[in-house]
Amino acid sequence: MAFVVAGVAVAGALVLKKLAFGGRRTKGRLARGALDGEGDDCGALVEPLDVEPAPCPSVPESPLKLTGRTFVVMDNIDVAGSPTQCGCPSWPLDEAETNAKCVDALLGAGARCVGKACCDELAFGMEGENVHHRSKGPINPANPNLVPGGSSSGPAVAVASGLCDLALGTDTDGGVRAPAACCGIFGLRTTRGSVSSEGVTPLAKSFDSVGLFARDAALLRQAGQVLIGAAESDPLQPSKFLIAQDLIYACKPESYSQVLADVAQLSASRLLGSANVAQVKVENFLAKQVPELRELKVEGKAGQLSSLEASYVAGTRKLMLECADSLGAFYGRTGRGKMGKSSRAKVEAALEFQRRCQREGEGIEVELKAVETMGDTLNEALSRGKVLIVPSLGRLPIRRGAGREEAGDWESANYRVLMLASSAGLPQVSIPLGAVDVAGEGRVPVSIGLVGARGSDGLLLDACHALCKKVLPLAFQQASKRLKQRSSGEAGGAKGGLIDQDKLAAAGLKDQGNQAFREGRYYDAVQCYSQGIQVDDSMPVLYSNRAMALLKLGNFVDAEADCSTCLSLDPSNVKALLRRGTARAYLAQFQAALEDFEHVLVLEPNNVAAAQELERMKEAFSTPARE
């Protein structure tokens, strides 16, 4: 295949290897896939480029942050002198006049752009397949039998195969997170609007976000800071990890959810201490905080939807209308015969939904309000440094060429997990853990996700880096070992996992106890926590929570004993130390109480409650006796 030199090297300009396909350039550019002699064995690129970075400063000044790094750009992001075709042969082939702002950000930091990468047609898909590509989509380097994930399939494959160091893609409802998980690399969805969309072809304006791929956490952090314009600062640490228990246990197959649950609990507890880790149910949160979700109905489904299901329905309906707005004019004037059947069906479904809303005079006001409330409440819940741990995918990557029904089920299960951050405009990082053996598929990549409040991109990048450097590798190794033991029967069946069904049942009883406590039913709360302990006596939080209820009932002896049991299981549990100190003070064990409060301040120097108790006790001891 012939190449022609197109110009002379200048900073930030397209200079080499423009493709020459004559009158069939549109078809050839998308179909080309693999690049002879360019090392693109997986067919990630549609066009090789060589765009010079900004000049490197002279010595003794420090080099630019990304000097020596290379990156590729998804085919819906502008690079000057190259067409932006969105993976669709019907899209106009005009060459972009300027770079997208996100491209200039990486160039300005010293990285070199080496290509345009393929994507799902119109960036409208999750499998990473494109009928116009000569192999129907790039090959997944992690496992050629599996889909690479989309819509940013080419950028993910280019990074995973070692063709480049970094890649830019877009994430509307998983377009970066899904391929990162499928290919076993890191993927960042930035806070919506935190990175300029200038020069990026829109799909759904309130969902679209620029994203980034890398093979290691340190480089993702470095390039992510450049992309979001973050200044150099000391690493940030989450104030608390919230583990989305119901999302994790809904994952299939069960072995996948088991590994995720084990890794989440182990790694979060080791990084922050178990006192700063909580198991939460997103369903319960949405049901309480987003009442608009109760009003949503789905034709053909009787009864009330779960809040999670309703949030997915609301987000999907809003997404479809925005896609119709973005693609309607293009679809009306283009030659539809050039588009793939699947892409055509998706666009037509969005346009039909738009027409139906207009024809019946029924907007989606309820859905819009629900999405807005959900986004704001999730954002508030994750404020002040809290991070939600979620699955990157609801299902493990499926095989290439899966049937329409299987692919549809896979997409649907994944969108239910991915929609939360998308509709709320929140940032999310997808972190590769390793791979698990799946019968008939070989080694399948496994990833986990971190979600933060809007604008917390830097916190997520720092947390991702800290987890990968300090705890995740060992946590995944232990979880994988337990999974093998369970599979071979060496660990006594279901009891062999670090988190099993007993733990899930005990966690449910803990939630019931928490609800009773909030309602002031302290005796009922004690009963729930006690039942949980009978099911699983290894959960420190059950003892700590029962101690709090016992304190409310004035049972200081049993409260002190429960706190001591909790601390034998988790020596750094701050809540147990505080509650034991309170119980001991009531029992006139003042020196022991002082030691508990002082220990809290060693673990958390800024703990207000411990400082106040210490001050109160010291004042009491220093009060002179009356004559």
Notes on the structure:
The protein has 627 residues and is an alpha/beta fold. It is globular. It starts with a strand and ends in a 5-residue tail after the last helix. It is 46% helix and 11% strand. The protein has 21 helices and 13 strands. The strands form two sheets. The chain has an eleven-stranded mixed β-sheet, sandwiched between helices. A two-stranded antiparallel ribbon has the order 1-2. 52% of the residues are buried. Helix 9 packs across helix 11 (365-381). Mean pLDDT is 88; it is low at 1-27, 33-37 and 490-499. The protein has helices at 25-31, 101-108, 153-160, 177-183, 217-228, 245-249, 254-272, 282-289, 307-333, 341-359, 365-381, 404-424, 457-470, 472-488, 501-518, 522-535, 540-552, 556-569, 574-586, 590-603, 608-622; strands at residues 3-4, 18-19, 45-51, 70-74, 112-117, 166-170, 186-189, 210-214, 240-244, 277-280, 386-391, 428-438, 442-451.
Q: What is the SS-derived class?
A: alpha/beta
Work out the strand percent.
5-15%
Sketch the major β-sheet: 11 strands, mixed
- Number of helical elements: 21
The coarse overall form would be globular
The tally of strands reads 13
Kindly provide the radius of gyration, computed on alpha-carbon positions and rounded to a whole number of angstroms.
27 Å
Organism: Chloropicon roscoffensis
Keywords: TPR repeat
InterPro entries: Amidase_dom, AS_sf, TPR-like_helical_dom_sf, TPR_rpt
Domain Amidase: 65-461
